[in-house]
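This entry is passed on directly below:
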Amino acid sequence: FVQILITPVKDNKGEPVGSVVLFHDITHEKELERMREDFTSMMVHELRSPLTGIRSIAGLLKTDRVKNEEKKFSDFVDLISTNASSMLDLVNDLLDVAKFESGKFEVLKRPSDLGHIINGRIESFASLAQESKLNLEQKVESGVPTTMAFDDAKISQVLNNLISNAIKYNNPGGKVTLGAFLCAQGKDIAQEAASHGFTWAGAHPGVVTAADVVVVSVTDTGFGIPAAEMSKLFNKFQQLSTAAKTEKKGTGLGLVVVKGVVEAHGGAVGVFSEEGKGSTFYFTLPVQAVPSILAVPSVKK
């Protein structure tokens, strides 16, 4: 796309003697405009779908037939709760992205047990994985500190986004593995993962840690990501071609939130993938001594 600006040139008597023609390449601006329009359309769909479901179910709950069937009534209430939660997650992602852009995003670090957080995510996604005919596993190495300083709500949000994607872009009969291991300063993350028994499709050496970190990973055996599209990851308004392989399309904000939250903790995000074999999304959390004012008080019996 080219924008053409023509400005007339006049002499000292005000008579036109020529013109200045400027050509401005606006291809990038037009592409951004198109992505924003696509994103807006997608957001409307993502909000409308659960709202339509809630309205329909609310109408059914008013009928005498449903009122007299306790189990069906309870199931409908559960559906309303699920749809409402989907909408709340979407709104929270939008708010977080807005805070990233304004520089107002903050995390509340406090003593937290990463293993406990991971167990909770496994339990939360167990039924969804079963519905999708997937095996959901965890592998937390013994070297991971019991207590670390991080925002447990935000790290849970990060894991929710990564696990949700791993389930969404997977094949029936596949597997999703949530793992964590300690990686010392100067060590190669991919090589350390292999030494701990993790199998990461497309993994290659070259990512070396600058400090002692805990590496948290979500690995799937799904579609994988084409090499040509790796640069689109963690960018707003963009979805990969793999989204066309599933009816469960998302907003494209999940990975943006993952990156922003992890970086706010002083960590980093990365991905290894091989098309047709699966992907591993990982992030790092610095291993730091928990400040004494945050330390969990000991309880004496």
Notes: The radius of gyration is 25 Å. The beta strands are 2-10, 16-25, 110-112, 135-140, 148-150, 175-183, 213-220, 269-274, 278-286. The chain is about 40% helix and 20% strand.
